[in-house]
């Protein structure tokens, strides 16, 4: 720590004479660095241990899932540097690439936030650094032969924003890329972690699992010459002199000017023509990319950008062998950023970042769009002065090159004017000769030393009259460097350093100030410095956020003339200050600019009444917190050792400090703290008199789930079909869609939404031979559209497009599900895709999440009994059962090649419920009770609540009420949701459901704003509906990652009736018998369709009547009828208003399983019309060959107007589509509107839902 403080505004003699060694870890002190300009002790370490046989002395070894990360500030710099170490693979490398070393950004909009990476690329080494435009300056080197597992290889990588990058292997140049770019950025951590090192996560997981050995890790502050690298490869010291960067160097000068936007000599920042100028920072009221809230181009943090990052990026160097599955961006995002303006004038826009394109403005309420200007490519910063001031409306930036980012876009209102009188002012003078050693400046000096190279650390202090201080010694004065000055203003002067006289009878500062900071006035002195830019000296002024110095409150560019004093009144967004000190920077294009040029500068802090300042403070802190938490929820980070969580904590604390009763702030804090401090008070909605409480609360619960799903469809789904989560995360979100639609809520709208997303995944090229196009881990292969294909079948049952997509996936899965040498069927890889399957080393283990991708096989096995799908499920279950231990347990992971086991039991780690889906499916496919053994073993270990991971009503399906009932009802009293539902099943006491629904209403209400307008990552938003499904459907149709459908029935209501208008309970839900309680909450009769799903097929008896006394029994006369009931067959019911109907259903005579029948189908995309010719594709989808049939063309009145025979078709036993094509001719004058096509056959079919389709 002391080393970092020493570097603040100083440089040792050694740093002028030789490349500065910022960090050196020899391994001789374990994981503690021998030399560190920042922190020497790791920020995180796990499963990393010292080894005695390093390359030279001791080194360290990382397990495959090991991590070690050191804090980057002070220890490594972004603009330029060298990284070197000895590496040993430990076991043979193969074709699978893996990460050897990482450096992470201090903040970013990409998930992995990788600034620098060195990889084994499968044949050699790759290395890159990431510039401010998200592009990667990358080099790649192929070895003649792979290194031996026990051999040490020396790797060195250098980077410089003025030249490019170079990779050295064993001391020799291997690859080089010459490229100029802006690398200046804050860095967070560096080290060994295969998956991510970032301010929100440090992790080795999923397919990112590969350890190894390292030794003699060194980081330098500049690129080393080849001779120096060669010396390091011999572990010899390097002491070649190198100067501090100065503007006298043409390359440094060019890079400096590009960074600040001073590279265009005829387009310098606007001149401060008036003696005093007011610059008002105007905050946008909204920022959207398509429909996604995108606060990252106006958050004041240069490392964050609009847009985020794509996994198959178009940007240089980004699309490599690691295509991350989760990317929080629309497919068509990154084209246009739309920023809404308040009802306040602006006349200047300043943009940082490489995006180039057109700026336009559209008035509020619409109207003619005005072009404001065009931004050229290859720029770091630009200033656009508007010809006419704007107020309100929307500013749009339209990218010429999609994805190219904006770091910051600031809106200002600039005019001649003085600072206001304010409530009061505090005045300071820059003292270049004063030592900035007040204790309350220590954190800021540490930040400066960690963030900036030696040449950019000139630091001065601004003091009020009479402040105690001591003169700066010559030895500690700022070194010659680049023209930037860090100005520190102490928040008080009680935090004095030691060894000074006692100060008395004087105090000055803003600690505990009531009022809010309105802005800062700076009297820029007459700069007596030469300029190379004609008459002007460009300046950049940044005011840092006092609680987070990596964020600017204002960042503005201006120009002055030498010898001409000017005042700028920086009208900030109001802040009610903490006791943190203030920090601002001034930078210039002139190499004569520095601390002495600013000596005597006057700075005034202007405060306004607290009540006037509170609004902007609260609004900004809430948005800052909201944006951060929307990102952090992806990893659920809660450690203050992680930068993003520290920033979240600072913003939230500052929000609640000023507005402790902020409703949404308190709701967020409840979520962030996992409810440990309770939640804001909540008042339950009251049931109308005469309405059963269970019915009212179920309806209220369902309304909130409906509100949530409808919000995401209406407010986030794009025309392309995605929701802004890269489709992959979106498909996680939409696992909530089928259950809601099957409960009778907006079924057509939800089905359309789901189809649009599934189609988008295919349109976006996310499939190759049925598997994901990208190569990814065992969990995320499922989330690359395979799950949305599976979801589609729930609401498009029998649709040929949905069925055949799943057939293709099952066929593709046969490449990764294979019988191993031990004769067991297992997954042969946990890192695969349609193009590549890695079958080596740590990637040959099946894991709990591996089984999720079998969702299509499960659904095909239930749909048409597909033999290959069933064989895959049953074979995997048999393979798993073969690993039962003597104590009855089952392993967590199984190695395909060796049949070895690891990871403890299947109860440990994430995804424990996933293998249970396979065992239950195998049981349902075979009726063999041995597949229940793992389920019962899990119940023995974890209790009967564990069957909540199975969608069916297992309690009754396995006749376990007697065995499990006492445990479940006892635990229901302590508030377990599933236990409450089970307690109702067992006791019939609906008070259990009333409490269950009440808790869900409360939870849903308190989370609604976060899960909608909070714009979280789309895979992190969920409102529980599984117990509503169990209530209304007799089982859960689908919950995320619970695969085997468990619903007995589904519902659909006529006319204007909404699903929420009818409360429904299914009692004693079994395939052969169940009872429905349906309470119509409306004042009119409701026509309801109840469709069978998980029921036994055959002839059923239905008895319907009313329950007039709430005892769940039929009272009075009942209607009785016999009917055919099976999967996809519908029963029409009439539900009288304001009453509870009882419908008793019982199987009378069993019938044949529809899954064993033939099935002809026609559906989406099967019909084309040209002139009067209607061409139709007919599909065979069943278990049996389809006989010849007939296709009728029907008009809106139901009349057949044309017919044609259809050919006989084979069953798709080979999992390949079986399609016949026919053509009908319609009357020439007939319009397609209202026309439908209907298949007619006497052959028993799996379903009639795919017999009819509209003519487009």
UniProtKB/TrEMBL annotation:
Top-level taxon: Bacteria
InterPro entries in alphabetical order: ConA-like_dom_sf
A Pfam family assignment: Laminin_G_3
Protein name from the UniProt record: LamG-like jellyroll fold domain-containing protein
Naturally occurring in which organism (per UniProt): Caulobacter henricii
